[in-house]
Amino acid sequence: MTLHPAPRGRIDKRQAILDAAFAVFARRGYAQACVQEIAVEAGVAKPTVYNHLGDKENLFRHAMAAAADLVKAENLAVVERLREPGDDLRACLEDVGHRLLKVCCGQRARSLRALTYAQIMTFPDLAEVVPGRTAEPLGEALADRFARLALGGRLATEDPARAAEQFLALLTGPMEARSGLGTRTVGAAETREVARAAVDTFLRAYGTGS
Fold it and tell me: In percent, how much of the chain has pLDDT > 70?
């Protein structure tokens, strides 16, 4: 049997529904969100939502996965900066750290974390789905970049995965504390300071001075 790709319009409509669903779930919470409001936000009829994604539970799972994929894409785009770090590795790492924090503190990522924490008992699969599409790919991408930097003599580590894990912890730990677990906005200057401090500590452990 020959498989044909779905029409572009159908794909776009599905994405519009997923975007609208995540926005409504983030705004209302899972329990208070309703499919009718999602349909209105997506600009489609309510039956269209059911035709594309079934019931509310299935819609929630798919909306969370789609949002996680968008966060992953943002993070991986930032890590690409390390492909060509230039002569000043510290400045490059600070830039990467600052941009990763901006993604982490962005509305989508914050809503994703809040919904995951709030619904983890009802949807235990989120414990694997969300990190599997966000934290894990980011850690792997960073580890790959750090491994290449180590091979080039610019970082001193025999365990790039651990170095990546610690780099991210140095960024996200202080930011979670300063933002009150995402409940307060942290200014641009303070965000850059967190990134600078993280890189300073990281290079004290893994830097080679080159």
Answer: 94
**What mean pLDDT value characterizes the chain?**
92
Tell me which residue of 74, 77, 133 sits closest to 106, measured CA to CA. Answer: 74
Measured CA to CA, the distance from residue 177 to residue 179 in angstroms comes to 6
Q: What is the pLDDT of residue 186?
A: 84
Q: Domain residue spans in the chain?
A: 7-54, 63-206
> Would you state the structure tokens that stand for residue 63, as one six-digit string?
């909306």
Name the CATH topology of 7-54: Arc Repressor Mutant, subunit A (1.10.10)
Q: Alpha-carbon distance 139 to 39, whole Å?
A: 36
Residue whose entry in the numeric block shows the structure tokens 């170095």 = 163
Dihedral sign, Cα of residue 151, residue 155, residue 158, residue 164: negative
Identify which of 128, 113, 6, 35 has the alpha carbon closest to the alpha carbon of residue 67: 113
The CATH code that applies to domain 63-206 is 1.10.357.10
- Split at pLDDT 50, 70, 90, the class of 210 is low
Secondary structure in 3-state letters for 140-192: HHHHHHHHHHHHCCCECCCCHHHHHHHHHHHHHHHHHHHCCCCCCCCCHHHHH
Distance (Å, whole) CA 62 – CA 158: 38
**Alpha carbons 41 and 33: distance in angstroms, whole number:** 12
- Please give the Cα distance from 44 to 23 (Å, whole number): 15
